[in-house]
Amino acid sequence: MTPFLELRGLSVFYDKVRAVEALDLTVGAGEIVALIGANGAGKSTVLRAVCGLVRPQAGQVWLEGQSLRGLGPDQIARLGVRMVPEGRRIFALMSVQDNLLMGAFTRRGRQIWEDLERVYRRFPRLLERRGQLAGTLSGGEQQMVSFGRALMGRPRLLLLDEPSLGLAPQVVREIARAIRDINREEGLSVVLVEQNSRMALQISHRAYALETGRVRLSGPSAELRDNDEVRRMYLGVGE
Questions:
Q1: What are the tens digits of pLDDT across the range 116-165?
Q2: Buried (b) or exposed (e) across 123-150, using 16+ Cβ within 10 A?
Q3: Residues of CATH 3.40.50.300 domain(s) within the chain?
Q4: What pLDDT does residue 1 have?
Q5: Model pTM score
Q6: Region 1-80+155-239: CATH code
């Protein structure tokens, strides 16, 4: 069976600095795959390569068997790929609702408003604050806006870059629950980049541990949680 997303021999360099080298990765339809590792391991670069924000020096990216080589970010977005970037990057001087509607820039028709209602049902606090300037929200609420904006594009593949970064534990649990619920209810394929390895391994089906741009370990998340090396290096157990 053809993977929903497949990366083969992916290499990305910034000037002469290696970010990712000869990386292989697959994501099945309806699967949550986590990328864990330290800062500088190449996790975010993988996401940027998938959505067209950086051009690989070598290797291929396929979405349902279609090569993404040479496609720009807007073309890849129209294929159903959406990214929730690190640091949220919302439009601070626009209202919550206008931020969400920006996520539907490739679409037309009344379904946009139906999807807006779905986002509000999933994140009720955004409904309460729909007319508020997004820049005045708390960090957790801004993350919900960024998440909801991506969902407004009706993605088939969702790329999440450090969604728990800088958030309170309660909000992290809310975000984790939202990722699981969306995956389960809508069959959405997800690539989750996280330094919070414990959370990432709890909600994902499979995971890759990256180190200096290469895959160090990979496998079912449940197995990696019990792996002594993973527990020592990424979960802080047994040190």
A1: 999 999 999 999 999 999 999 999 999 999 999 999 989 999 999 999 88
A2: bebbeebeeebbeebeebbbbbbbbbbb
A3: 1-80+155-239
A4: 63
A5: 0.92
A6: 3.40.50.300
